[in-house]
Amino acid sequence: MKKRLSFQFLIHAILIIAILLIAFPVIFAFIVSTHAYQDVFPPRFSLGRYLWENYTQAWKQVNMGRLLWNSTLISVAVSLGKIVLSLMAAFAFTYFGDFRGKGFFFVIILITHMLPLPIRIVPTFELMQDFNWVNTYYALTIPFFASATGTLLFRQLFLTVPLSLSDAARIDGAGPISFLVRILVPLARTNIAALFMIEFIYMWNQYLWPLVVTNSDEMRVVQIGIKMLLLQQAQAAEWNVIMAGTIIAMLPPLIVLFLLQKSFVQGFAMQEEK
Fold first, then answer.
1. Residue 81: inside a domain
2. pTM score, two decimals?
3. Are 106 and 43 in contact (CB under 8 A)?
């Protein structure tokens, strides 16, 4: 009994230390964001009295409201677009039989998952130029709609649904779209929430593509705004203001994480069970 308690205590101690190590940069960034410029160095580990001033300056200095709006709009649009296209693709690969080229197209979709953005950035940018979409929301969203991860995730789920269910729906007069919307989508709600959270955070953290495909401050995203805070300093960087901007940029993904974390865990737990 004592050995078991000692082992549990050791495990909990390791987990607590790991959490503190992971959370320390965020905690320290928040502490720095509450101090005046002259109090940032040497580092202090107590809260300062300039929280409101620093956050107000960071908000106004780079038009943070506009940047947050752009990032939120892009992240939500891409997440929803990926979910819709992934559901439709997974439905086709699962229920439309062995159509010609089914295996080939599925492999091609999986291969795209192995190609990082920097490899595709030049041809994609040229395509956006041909469409005259540079510096528009179209260029910031549509190239990200396809998702190999989402297609694979929903396909694996649909494969676990008995074919007798689709036969019963067909006998009752339900067409393919009705079967997808009324039966399969409710069954996939936890997977949808998990995919939405993953893709929202992924798009929120995008820096390279928005930097390349936008050329005006009105179309910039919040990650570029943090870099703008660093570049706008005439002399030494005002790290208190920069950290305030960083904390502001972290809030929307954290809200999404807290709202969907239960569905995220359930969605992937179900995949493991299957």
1. yes
2. 0.88
3. no
